[in-house]
Structure formats: structure tokens, C-alpha cells
Amino acid sequence: MNRRPFLKNLTLLGGGLVSLPLSGFPGSLSKTLEDEVFLPVFKFITASDGHFGQPNTDFETSHQNLIQAIKRESDVDLVVFNGDLIHDDPVYMPAVKKVYDQLPMPYYLAKGNHDRVSESRWLEIWGQPSNLFFPVNDQYGMIILNSSNEAGDYLCVDLDFLETALEESINRTQVFIFIHISQNDWTRHGVDCQGILDLIARYPNVKATFHGHDHDVDGIMWHQKKPYFWSGHFGGNWGNPFPSYRVCEVDGQGKTKTALKRISDGVILNAHSL
Questions:
Q1: N or C: which end of the chain has fewer CB within 10 A?
Q2: Which residues pair with 79 in a beta bridge?
Q3: What is the tens place of the pLDDT at every residue in 41-63?
Q4: Residue 228 CA to chain centroid, in angstroms?
């Protein structure tokens, strides 16, 4: 099934192991014994914490492994790299862009605390602002938010930008949010930003929020009836022992599924139906 025309109308608006509660479904993400009629019309992948350039790590191999895993997936509409693209040294930012450019589908980026370049340099390299909203066709809204700065501080995201993006998305059937650093202190490396969580909870069409940053977290947490997902990591020198990425799919009836997959062989590590 060729679904590339689905993105024709995409536009941009700039501006240790921890186990979390899981509720899943078995088998393949798109085709299970219990649900053979799930036919996705929108599919995206998110992966975080590649740490390209980190000393004493095989960062080039870990990145190529992820690129090949994404290419093995069918009908992917877009990819979001959810922060910590590099490991502190700005010289690696153009280099990691060359790696991402190997992908055959559009990709977008969240800024992480190790992505220590200025806002102007970020925009120059990527052509995308660090706070970004884009609608996908008439159905979905994608919001990417910056939770750090050039010094690598852990920050609450821009509340005004988030509210503007959510209002722009008010008529979309589903909205997905990407923030590198969790806006709650329920993990060791999260920050307490209650106003952000309250704002997200006010919008019924926000389907899920996705985080990176915590390499040893790869499950789901709920807050005010909203799901927050983590994707572990695919690079770096610490965290869960299985580099991973997360797939999210939506079918024509609005049913949404997500699964964390192991990069090495595509095995589903945990999965959820929303």
C-alpha cells in the first residue's frame, strides 16, 4: 500500500532499569490474531537519544542500525528524532544530519539537552525551528517542543507556543506531542512543569505525548487521563540494554496503537492500544 500522497498537504508552523506500568497487546503491531482488520492510514516512528559523537561509543554503528531498522518498516509517513541528536560537541550536528538524510521519508527533530547549539545554528542546519507545529493533511497535528537550551539546562517548554499550537489543532482528530525531557518529575531526569500537563489535559484530541531523555525508561505513564510514552534510547553509553524505537499507527476509524521495537530484530518489547 503506497500512502506517500497522504502527506501532500503537510505544512509547517515554527516558532539501572526503570519499569513503568504497561498495558499492551500481543503480536505484530499492525496484524494480530485478535485484530486482523486494523489497517493503518497514518504511521510514524519516534526514536531518541542517539548521542552521535559520544566518546567511547560506537555511535556510527548504532545510528546505521536504526536507519536500517526504519527502512525495514513499511509505509512510514514520517520520523521524529526526539532529542539528544549529538553529545555536546556542535561539530557533530552537520554529521548526524547526513545520517538522517539517508531516510526515504520526511523527518523532524526535537532539541535535547545535549544538542548544545544556538537557536540560530539549529535553524541553519535543520531548516526547522526548535518549537514546531505541523498539520498532517486534515486529520493530525504534530507538535515538537524544545525543553533545553545551549547550556543544556532542563526546562519547561514554551507554554504560549504549546497553547497556540493546540488551538491551531483544535479541529484535528488526533494530536501528538514530542518533548525530549519529561515535564513531570516522575522519572529521575524529569522536571516539574505542572502547567504544561494541565494544558495538555484540557485538549481532548491530544492522543499521546512522547519523551526521550531517560535512557532506562521505555513504558507509559498516565496523568489526567493522558498517556505519556518513553522510547528508551538507540545510542549513548547507559540505559536499557536493548536499543529501541517506537512505532505509532492510526487506522481509518481513529484507533491508535503504539509499540516499542528492538532495533536489532524488530521484536516488540511493549505495546499499547489507545
A1: N
A2: 45, 107
A3: 999 999 999 999 999 999 999 99
A4: 11
Q: Which residues contact 27 (CB under 8 A, 6 or more apart)?
A: 33, 34, 268
Q: What is the pLDDT of residues 192-225, one digit of tens each?
A: 999 999 999 999 999 999 999 999 999 999 999 9
End-to-end CA distance of the chain: 24
Q: Are strands 132-136 and 140-145 parallel, antiparallel or unpaired?
A: antiparallel
Q: Are strands 256-262 and 244-251 parallel, antiparallel or unpaired?
A: antiparallel
Residue numbers of the chain with a pLDDT score lower than 50: 1-28, 30-35
CB 143 within 8 A of CB 14: no
Q: Could you tell me the strand order of the sheet in which 107-110 lies?
A: 107-110, 78-82, 40-47, 244-251, 256-262, 268-273
How big is the chain, counted in residues? 274
Per-residue b or e along 21-46, where b marks 16 or more CB atoms closer than 10 Å to that residue's CB? eeebbeeebbeeeeeeebebbbbbbb
For residue 62, give the nearest of 267, 233, 261, 268 by alpha carbon: 233
Domains of the chain listed by start with CATH number = 4-273 (3.60.21.10)
